[in-house]
Specification:
alpha+beta; four-stranded antiparallel β-sheet; 5 helices; 14 strands; elongated
Length: 244
């Protein structure tokens, strides 16, 4: 099996866990490597591990039992990675997520635009133009960590977080944008709101999107927001999507 030029560091995280850490960057090639590495680890260990947790640049492997010899386990983990991963392409979906940018649903949009010295329409245009990559899911069930925000929209988090951001709030924090899947405290700036549910515990697939997928925000009117919201509440529908 060929060895990759991608440099990973391996260290014991706890008696039951090993952390595999790659370069500290948000990068789609690194994401692809980590996704294939994760599959390789899960296939090899099966029920001997509880889960493998993905982040921007790392995998955390939780073993079902205490790690007796961490050095042997690290050697095994290293053998499960191949630079052939870089030549493989995983199936991805593009999800079109409707977002309403009206002041009544996103009261912070105006102040955000003022602070950026932009017109509101420019903020909306910059936010809806990219195809965002889903890097991983965390913080809250169904919270997608998205890469691809236009640099012009980068903004520090609030100095004082809001005590409650409503579910569906579309927000910007630092160099990231995301959607709050449930009511939650939050330090990001809310610039829009979507009627889409990103986590449904009763659904076969609790979160429709997966790491590696793409997200495109589609600007909608408040009337469309209400219509889609009614549909989501009565039929648990998910956004339109296509295979890339």
């Amino acid at each position: 099996m060929k060895k990759s030029n991608t440099k990973f560091q391996y260290k014991r995280y706890s008696e039951h866990a090993i952390l595999i850490q790659g370069p500290s960057k948000i990068d789609e090639t690194l994401l692809e490597n980590l996704l294939f590495y994760k599959k390789s680890i899960e296939k090899f260990y099966g029920k001997l591990i509880i889960e493998v947790i993905l982040s921007y640049n790392s995998l955390l492997i939780y073993y079902a039992s205490t790690i007796e010899n961490v050095y042997d386990e690290v050697l095994t983990l290293k053998s499960l990675f191949s630079d052939e991963f870089e030549n493989q392409a995983s199936k991805k979906r593009l999800w079109k997520v409707p977002v309403c940018y009206s002041n009544s649903l996103a009261p912070e949009l105006s102040s955000f635009a003022v602070n950026k010295s932009m017109e509101i329409d420019e903020v909306i245009s910059l936010h809806t133009t990219p195809l965002y990559t889903v890097y991983f899911i965390g913080f809250l069930p169904g919270f997608l960590y998205l890469g691809g925000l236009d640099e012009k929209l980068f903004a520090p988090r609030k100095s004082t977080p809001s005590q409650k951001l409503e579910h569906g709030s579309v927000a910007i924090g630092g160099n990231q944008t995301g959607i709050y899947p449930c009511d939650s405290p939050g330090g990001w700036h809310v610039i829009g709101k979507t009627p889409v549910r990103f986590f449904d515990i009763n659904a076969d697939n609790c979160c429709f999107a997966s790491p590696g997928d793409k997200i495109q925000f589609i600007s909608i009117t408040e009337e469309q927001y209400n219509d889609i919201g009614l549909l989501v509440n009565t039929s648990n529908s998910i956004p339109e999507s296509k295979i890339l």
